[in-house]
Amino acid sequence: MTSLQLKLEDIPSLEGKVVVLTGGASGIGLAASRIFAHKGAQVHVLDIVPIDETFDIYEIPGQANGDCPELAPCHGGTINFRKCDITNWSSLRDIFLSFEHIDIVVANAGVSQDPDYFTDILDENGLLKEPAHRAVDVNFRSVLNLTKLALRQFQKQKPGSSLVITASSTAYSPEQSLPIYSATKSALIGLIRGLRPMAEINGATINGVAPAATISKLLPANLAAPIKAAGAPISSSYHTGLAVVYSAVAQQARSVELYGRDDPAKIALPGRWNGRVIVTLGDRWTEVEEPIASLRQEWFGEYNTEQTALQQKLTDLRGM
């Protein structure tokens, strides 16, 4: 795996850039919004609740905040709250229509699953009721819609746009107590991989961040305290938010992998960070997609790797 050492100084000036970010009222989204704004971007936070200006993006239970960078305030005019139910297509579409130009889109909003998903609930006739699908609607369907709107917007613009998706470490290491949540986050990794060769056509990039335990409204400090007390790693929202912003602006020395009819020389070409995912765990950042792709023959098998690559080549319609 590829360990990263990220610093606020790694983020270039974003003066004049427009960022649209979902789920930015607190936690990771708020941290990313403040970093974007600190670097000069105009940030539009889409959420169903107003921004929580009291949320401590640096907090880790039982640990002093230490030397924390001074970031843009939530109310400085560069972070704008737009009330939006992201599961509502019309609301989401109308907000995108209000912008002439968008440089960076971050699909960050997410919810945990209903703990009773696999508990039988009967209707008035004694028949099994369909479970609620809020986790699927928020964590996956709304991200598909946001991705559709973002890529459509990027097609109208000059190259250089970025889409970043907040997935979860449960996509790589699922939790038995959160099977639906883990499944939705795994689907987001699949989306990033599937769009990796397509985003470039529009001059855009698509990347992801996969947080492990991170202080947020989903995991408040009081619930995280036992994890920290046991010596397990926990990240601050700032730590993960920095990975989100970095993913939107980073450069790479080579591509993650070739696809379909790609020229073999393309793998070694430097360019914008694309199709990569940073796992955030404790105080560490790890890019995992390039190593996973490089080891494909070992975990997928030589025959399977070769033949599925051939299928991809035969069905690669890019540029045709």
From TrEMBL:
Q: Name one GO biological process term.
A: secondary metabolite biosynthetic process
Q: Domain of life, per the record?
A: Eukaryota
State the Gene Ontology terms under molecular function: oxidoreductase activity
First and last residue of the signal peptide: none
Instruction: Note one Pfam family from the annotation.
Output: adh_short
Q: Which UniProt keywords apply?
A: NADP, Oxidoreductase
Q: Which family does it belong to?
A: Belongs to the short-chain dehydrogenases/reductases (SDR) family.
The protein's name in its UniProt record: Short chain dehydrogenase reductase
